[in-house]
Amino acid sequence: MLLGRVVDSVWSTRKDETLTGMKFMIVRLIEGSDESSGSLIVAVDTIGAGIGEKVLVVGGSSARLLPELMNKPVDAAIVGIIDEGTNE
Q1: Model-level pTM?
Q2: pLDDT-derived band at 55, boundaries 50, 70, 90
Q3: Which of 48, 50, 73, 76 qualifies as a cystine partner to 43, CB 3.0-4.6 A?
Q4: CA 57 to CA 7: how far, in whole Å?
Q5: Cα separation of 17 and 32, whole Å?
């Protein structure tokens, strides 16, 4: 699992038809104590995360194990919103 912060949303009117109705978010991965320097990824939001929230992200085959993402061309999914915690 990866730790990240949702920084924006993505709109895509043309996409693989199996992704219709899914919400895409831009997540900045948190690497170390500096939250502003991590990589940006696009992740499918399966739980309703909002911009600014700290989230848990799974990638690769782990993302495709979620029932709603089975057999869909997805490489990352938001699976949790972090209420508390430190990244030390």
Answers
A1: 0.85
A2: very high
A3: 76
A4: 14
A5: 37
